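cron nightly-structures :: item 1 of 1
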Amino acid sequence: FLLMLQLWQNSQSTEAGVYAEEILSRMEIVGMYQDELKNFSNAYVLALECWLTAAKAGRSGAAECAFRLLEMVEAQASSDDPFSGVNRSMLPLPRMYPLMMSICASTHEKQDASRAMAIAFKICDKMVHDNIKPSPVIFEMLYICVRNFLDRHPEEERQGLLRDVFERAGKHGITRGEVMGRRKQLLRPKKGYYIPA
């Protein structure tokens, strides 16, 4: 199962996430009868990696689908069902949150940009709630999500959204320069376009 997930992860296919979830479903069914398959930690991470592959390949709705998978894992983490077959202590949420941010930052379809940005903000909130300290890379990806959204929706209020990113980062001791990171050098200002220093 894990080998198949790895193959789809490296496939560069827009269908990688879809097939990863199918593999995951079959793995969970088999895991009900085989104790050695009850630890799905790596499988969940690989499934999200497959959604990242799909997002990079231009799959519409990849961020939304990946977020549903993440919410399913979170539901299992909070479940009291002793027959779920899932070891809650092994659920890889701290590894999945940064991956989810990467998926959102890799979403470039106009119809998905708004939802991807909203999910990215939610992931940041979840990390804070779970006492997981966000790194500068997390806020850099949040910044990319906002920029992706604004590039496709120039009518939206630009400064308010960017200010929200910088203020969130500042609460964790992360400077504006760290948030913008490499992006400031890669993004060339357009005519009439302002990148906060």
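cron nightly-structures :: done
DSSP finds ten helices and no strands in the chain.
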